[in-house]
Amino acid sequence: MDKDGQMARGRATAEMVARQANVSRVAVSRAFNSHTSLKPEKRELILRIAQELNYTPDRAARALVSGRTHLIGVIVPDVCSYWESQEIDALTTALQNEGFATLLFKTRSDFSMDEKLLAYMRGFNPDSVIAFMENVRPSTLVRFLDRAVPIYVHYPHPDAEDDGEDGPLYDRLNVLQHGGIDQAVALLQGYNTRRIVYLSGAVKSRSNVAREKMLRTVMAARGLPPPRVVIGDYSYDTAYAATIDLFRVGDGADAIFASNDVSAFGVIDALRHELGLRVPEDVKVVGFDDIAQSHWKSYDLTTVKFDLSERVRALVRLILRRLNEPDAPALQETLHTSLVVRGTVG
Amino acid sequence: MDKDGQMARGRATAEMVARQANVSRVAVSRAFNSHTSLKPEKRELILRIAQELNYTPDRAARALVSGRTHLIGVIVPDVCSYWESQEIDALTTALQNEGFATLLFKTRSDFSMDEKLLAYMRGFNPDSVIAFMENVRPSTLVRFLDRAVPIYVHYPHPDAEDDGEDGPLYDRLNVLQHGGIDQAVALLQGYNTRRIVYLSGAVKSRSNVAREKMLRTVMAARGLPPPRVVIGDYSYDTAYAATIDLFRVGDGADAIFASNDVSAFGVIDALRHELGLRVPEDVKVVGFDDIAQSHWKSYDLTTVKFDLSERVRALVRLILRRLNEPDAPALQETLHTSLVVRGTVG
DNA sequence: ACCGAGAATGAACACGTTTTCACTTCGCGT
DNA sequence: ACGCGAAGTGAAAACGTGTTCATTCTCGGT
Predict the structure, then answer these.
(1) Of A95, A214, B36, B228, which has the fewest CB atoms closer than 10 Å, so is most exposed?
(2) Same domain (yes/no): B211, B297
């Protein structure tokens, strides 16, 4: 493969395909970007030859002129965190199907701002950014990404401070926590559960704030006293220690709402293996997320779930729409939660 | 920012920096790629102005001329799989520190070849590829990636069929399974355990083959009869069902070697919650990997571990070396395993 | 004051596309 | 036969950088 098209650097170029097919290089470009007119038989010939030569338009060159890299930056504090790994997994599949690819970055695990990382990521020119940084305001984020379209991922209700007069300033995915939490509280109420404790996640994170707030609202609406709050950080180990502390030093509880499934596992293990209590007979436990492990027999956790695939579909829809119409008004989609009843309650 | 440097598309260009600093555009390029000579004060001025303008060399343009994208393709069947998510996490951090970024792709979950995906990934021109595709030979993989340098990730011993006369044909990371497995078998032998069962992973996967083979070798060397083999696929659910089947229909066992930690969890849960057996009193269980959940109280798993961070360091070292010296002879590094003793044995 | 070597500099080209803009060809109605 | 839009075509200009090569500058030694 070195007679006239030099096959430099190992990849075929549009020039070679053109020569082989007796067409101009422009025709080759047109064959791949269908929106301009080109005689059908010609396109067919070009595509066949391209296939033969294993040719694909070079993405760097394409990005240079079009300004689109087809990369979606994903910033995440911890890939191992089960919920997030599930989301990354689904997201990668979905983006792949739409001609994009996931560009993964890791940030500090406290959900806070990381200017250094953001600048670094910006250098790769992602077309859009999905940030798992719950403590950062969108307006702060957007200042560091001039060209990219940021989608700020979080779970709570719309945040008034980030809204303009005519609605939200940025595309947003909202999760209405009400449904699942209300079902859970109703279920507990049915068992005459009295002392309900909320084990928090990372205190300042938006999802944690939203979950606690909604829990208070729901309990008040049902005529229950507000829950006691124990500080956690979404991790197994902290939940484990906090639970022991709650029962050894504190007043104990009849039911514990954990801010996510992983910390619910910590709660359950502390109750059973350290405190000698039974779940659900002595203490009932509810989690958030419904990750894959929640149905494992050792835990069999009752938890507040929302549909992951639905969420990812919505997210990809938002991203694609924004890329096609950069100046369209900000959009938001709303998802709902529901309760998955398993063995840790009832 | 539109007086002469037009700030097109939102990003500053080298041209603008040059104009602002009264230098030629070439000088700006030199200031960023230090290997050519440039008056120090000039470089300083340029870098200062660049910072002011928030300028970074465009990676697409840079890739176009240099042929380097600084992207490392990572192909993985399942991001949620805990061991792999841990590896992706560590890898992303390490690559980030070296000026690269992780480009994530998802493939079929049976570890087999996926030409479609490979062609798709090739389109993004990654500088190197890390593939979690244990059923695919490196030689097959390399056929689909003309320019990229593939690193084939697997756990077993060197595979003779992929070696040339003067050693291995490709860079490789080998894991010597012997240490941890031998310790585990010795421990079981100490308890006079007789009927040992190996619960396989995905049957054709290299890591599974290597683990089973080494288990046989070690047991033979210690004068034990070969283990019975039960078919699994690395998943919790399959392990759960297979264990029930083993005890209800089959002969049962005194100890079960699970091919990874997740399936060990499935084994434990089936024994305790479905078959009413005690672990470790009635049946002992050993896993592979030592993922984060293995120390959780519900499982407290004894398992064969090797150092993840050491592994990732070695991997990154291999990649960087290959990028700097594309024609250097193939290199291999070897890692060792050890046993982490917890509650499921003894 | 002069020469020469090495450092510093900038013009021009290369990288592989997409897009614009004239130009040619084609088919069809009068 | 003529004209006239529409469809098809290719030359040339971007896109933003790295690199080569010839030129200019600097400075120490005679």
Answers:
(1) B36
(2) yes
Q: Which residues touch strand D (CB under 7 A)?
A: A 23-24, 26-27, 30, 36-40, 42, 61, 64-65; B 8-9, 11, 13-15, 25-26, 28-30, 32-33, 35-36, 55-58, 61-62, 64-66
d(CA A22, CA A25): 9
To the nearest whole angstrom, how far is the Cα of B271 from the nearest Cα of chain A? 10
| Pairing of the two strands B172-176 and B149-153 | parallel
Tell me how many domains chain A contains: 3
Under 8 Å between Cβ of A257 and A229? no
User: Does B187 reside within a domain?
Assistant: yes
Q: In this structure, what CATH number is given to the domain that contains residue B242?
A: 3.40.50.2300
pLDDT at res. A37: 73
Find and give the residue nearest to D13, measured CA to C1': A65
Residue of higher predicted confidence among B324 and A227:
A227
C-beta atoms of B101 and A102 within 8 A: no
Whether A267 and A321 map to the same domain: the answer is no
Q: Which of A81-85, A88-92, A323-327 is least confident?
A: A323-327
Is residue B85 within 8 Å of B308, Cβ to Cβ?
Answer: no
Chain A residues within an 8 Å CB radius of B77: none
Residue B17's CATH number: 1.10.260.40
Asked if residue A335 has pLDDT above 80, the reply is yes
The pLDDT tens digits for A136-185 are: 776 777 777 666 666 666 554 444 455 555 556 677 788 888 999 999 99
Q: How confident is the model at residue B166 (pLDDT cuts 50, 70, 90)?
A: low
Pairing, β A228-230 against β B71-76:
unpaired
Nearest by CB to B124, from A86, A101, A274: name it: A101
Q: Is A104 helix (H, G, I), strand (E, B) or coil?
A: strand
Give the closest residue to A315 by CA, choosing from A338, A328, A334, A291: A334
- The answer as to whether A126 is a domain residue is yes
Query: Is residue A88 domain-shared with residue A119, that is, in the same domain?
Result: yes
For residue A148, give its domain range: 66-174+309-335
Amino acid at residue number A284: K
> Is a pLDDT exceeding 80 seen at residue A48?
yes
| Distance, CA of A183 to C1' of C30, in Å | 77
Q: Which residues pair with B287 in a beta bridge?
A: B303
For B33-71, b where at least 16 C-beta lie within 10 A, e where not — what string?
eeeeebeeeebebbbebbeebebbebbbebbbeeeebbb
Residue with tokens 């399936």: B263
d(CA A129, CA A134): 14
Q: Is residue A1 part of a domain?
A: no
B144 and B195 co-located in one domain: no
Name the minimum distance, in Å, from the CA of B298 to any CA of chain A: 6
B192 shares its domain with B160: no
